[in-house]
Design goal:
globular; mainly alpha; two-stranded antiparallel sheet; 3% strand
């Protein structure tokens, strides 16, 4: 038996607003029949990661979950203080910062309970960060960082599974949406059809490369337009374009199609 995992979709082709298991099964089997006959667009088949890939990805995702929890509890403490008319610094739970805060005794006790939870979460997040960074290669482009590299690698799983740059860009969800017909072509905001964690990390890395890797080819291409003060709203679009190209270039690096020097990336 050969199993296929496919992307969820609405099987109601004409918007009948009727959904039953029998109708969904019939539509799914009809699409499967066309897929097996050679129509690869009939079903969007999802690649199933290996157990090793899933395990590695689970570690980085656990770290991201812990970081979100830390932010959530930090904001909860700031909200409690705000009800008392007090403003806490961003990382109020740090030992030195918390010791210097002038707080009423009851509020300090309340925040101390939250602080113990935050410190526990922070210790686990730091330990996972160290573990992930230790798995990254030694020679990396400057300011890309071992943590960024490893998160990207673990989310992708296997860079060699992409056959061309279009597949890489599509997986990021950073491609523009499009509504075109005949001679008319209209492109809109990014379609967001892809891995959201990968997309967020790529955009974050693109902002760093804009500042610290001026020789990187996409940065050199877009720097003049990025610095144009007359069109500040265009900056985010430029960062998205750089992030999309960065994903393609990382695929080229990981698969040996190009070197960092050929892409204009400085490796310390």
């Amino acid at each position: 038996m050969h199993n296929l995992v496919v992307r969820p979709r609405d099987w109601s082709t004409y918007g009948e607003r009727v959904k039953t298991d029998a109708r969904d099964a019939g539509a799914l089997c009809s699409s499967l029949d066309r897929h097996l006959a050679g129509n690869r667009g009939a079903l969007a088949v999802v690649r199933v990661p290996t157990e090793a890939e899933e395990g590695a990805r689970g570690v980085s995702r656990q770290r991201q979950s812990l970081v979100r929890d830390r932010v959530r509890f930090t904001l909860r403490g700031k909200g409690i203080a705000r009800l008392r008319g007090l403003a806490l610094p961003p990382e109020w739970w740090r030992e030195r910062t918390f010791a210097r805060l002038d707080l009423p005794a009851d509020l300090r006790e309340q925040l101390s309970a939250l602080r113990r939870v935050i410190l526990s979460i922070d210790a686990e997040a730091v330990a996972l960060t160290t573990q992930i960074e230790a798995a990254a290669p030694a020679a990396l482009p400057a300011y890309l960082g071992p943590l960024t590299w490893e998160i990207l690698r673990r989310e992708v799983g296997d860079w060699s599974r992409f056959a061309n740059r279009r597949q890489v860009a599509s997986y990021t969800g950073l491609c523009p949406s499009e509504h075109s017909s005949g001679a008319s072509r209209l492109q809109g905001s990014i379609n967001r059809h892809g891995n959201p964690r990968l997309r967020h990390i790529l955009v974050e890395a693109a902002w760093r490369l804009l500042r610290y890797q001026p020789a990187y080819r996409p940065v050199a291409k877009w720097r003049e337009a990025f610095m144009d003060q007359g069109r500040p709203g265009r900056r985010k679009k430029i960062v998205v374009a750089i992030a999309r190209q960065l994903a393609v270039d990382l695929w080229r690096l990981a698969t040996g199609r190009a070197t960092a020097a050929q892409l204009g990336l400085v490796v310390p």
